[in-house]
Amino acid sequence: MEFKDLLFTGVKTVLTSLGIPVPIEDLLKGFLSLVEKIDQLGEDEVLKVALYWALYKAVEDALKEFEKEYNRREDFQNAVKNLFKELDKRLTALGENKEIFELSKFSLNNFYGTEAVGEILRILKEVVDKTLKPMEDFPAGQFKGLVEDRLKLFFWIVVEEDENSFKKLLDNFSRESIKEKLRKYYIDRYLSKIVKEFAIDPIFGEKNEIPLEKVYIEPHYGVYDGKKFKKAEKSIFEELYPDFREGRSKLILILGFPGEGKTSLARKIIYDFKTHRLDIQKVYLLKLREVEDPEELLKGNPKAIKQELERLIFGEEDLKLDDFKNSVVILDGLDELLMTKNYLSNKGEEFIEQLLKFLKNQSQWRNLQIVITSRLGYVEPKNLYKLKGLKILKLEGFDLAQQKEWIKKYSQYHPDKGHYLKQIEDISE
Q1: I need a surface site. Which of 191, 244, 252, 337 has the fewest CB within 10 A?
Q2: What own/partner pairs with CB < 8 Å and gap ≥ 24 does 62-67 have?
Q3: Backbone Cα Rg of the chain
């Protein structure tokens, strides 16, 4: 496959999916002419090609986020065509200023602070404002943010992906340095996506709604004592976070009925880690309903959990979680995995027992902690209680005070809903 065909496979695919049958050559003439002579270019111009290519890959990737909502809309199709045409025209003109793309001025460590990247992002903003922003219902600011966020990631991917074309750049950059930065970037992007679900995405999935973070209520819980769940006096975060920092429990099982906040709690832990409220080395979250090989995972070997996380975070990239053994890993929804695959009722207990053996007996996993969430009824606490290194908690449904607190928080953003608080108070009297 020719370099230019490899380059635009993704762009062609996303344009086709949006119903835009225009040949890529009609949209990116200037850039194609540059790509066709890449073998003859000096290192400064090769840097320019890599940055431009990274931009187009980032634009392509960001467009996929809006594919469902805007697919086949004629105004969106025209806006996207004009977006590519305008970018090509503006970037071709920018390329005439050779000083901007001098490799000696470029820094991987200060990627967004370099003049070349700054100029490219300035052009992106102006072009998006001209082509996509006039669509009143299109979130142009969100689109620009996605492209900017992914630009650095795709620059690393581009340079790594075609070693021959970008050898002149690789000779100036440390290959290991690029790989390490790429690994960290993927992990950060994965964690940021979970944070977005908690702190940005609207609850109930409706536009103009507030995120869960604004109305989050800390759940009450009980600790299993061998016979029953004894109501805890301290907050659940006072229970969990010191345990994470000191490694008191090898495995923490969190049970609850549907809707009692197990997944919300998992997201809150990731949010606290990303916002420096939880001071530990690393936290990961794996939704068990999304694993590719449940049979292997349920054998209880942490290696299978690591492989599932690497697939989730890195995709096809040849990257590893080097710090996995010093992490807290949340496995969310054991019940969903067991229910989907119709496993026997004791399969979950066997998994927990086997996982604990690996965590306690193999030195490579001794600093790894696992948190598992599950609905009640899929594992039996009394059958697991005697296992050393296991703590079992159960979330409780909202009591009246928590319901009032939730409505009070919610009505700060939706004053028209404040009457629900009065209704609850009337019922409780």
Answers
A1: 191
A2: 62/143, 62/146, 62/147, 62/150, 63/14, 63/18, 64/14, 65/143, 65/146, 66/138, 66/143, 67/14, 67/17, 67/18
A3: 26
**CATH (one of 3.40.50.970, 3.30.70.120, 1.10.1240.10, 3.40.50.300) for 212-397:** 3.40.50.300
The set of residues, in sequence order, having a beta carbon less than 8 Å from that of 313 and lying 6+ positions away, is 186, 187, 190, 321
Put simply, whether the predicted model's pTM sits higher than 0.90 gets the answer no
Reported as a single tens digit per residue, the pLDDT across 363-422 is: 888 889 999 999 998 999 999 989 999 999 999 988 888 888 888 888 887 776 655 555
- Round to the nearest angstrom and report the end-to-end CA distance of the chain: 75
**Average pLDDT of the residues in 216-239:** 93
Structure-block tokens of residue 240: 């969990």
Residue 96 corresponds to which tokens in the numbers above?
A: 């005439």
Instruction: Using the predicted structure, report yes or no on whether residue 428 has a pLDDT greater than 50.
Output: no
Residue 199: both structure tokens together: 């702190």
Tokens of 373: 């969430």
Beta bridge partners of 211: 202
Predicted local distance difference test score (pLDDT) of residue 207? 64
Distance CA 58, CA 14 (A): 12
Determine the Cα angle at 306 with ends 304 and 311, to 5°: 95
CA 188 – CA 156 distance, rounded (Å): 15
Q: Where do the domains of the chain lie?
A: 3-173, 212-397
Residue 287, classed as helix, strand or coil, is: strand
Residue (of 274, 135, 268) closest to 213 by Cα position: 268
CA dist., res. 42 & res. 103, Å (int):
10
Would you place residue 236 in the very low, low, confident or very high pLDDT band (cuts 50, 70, 90)? very high
Maximum average pLDDT range among 43-52, 185-194, 242-251: 242-251
Q: Is the pLDDT of residue 426 over 50?
A: no
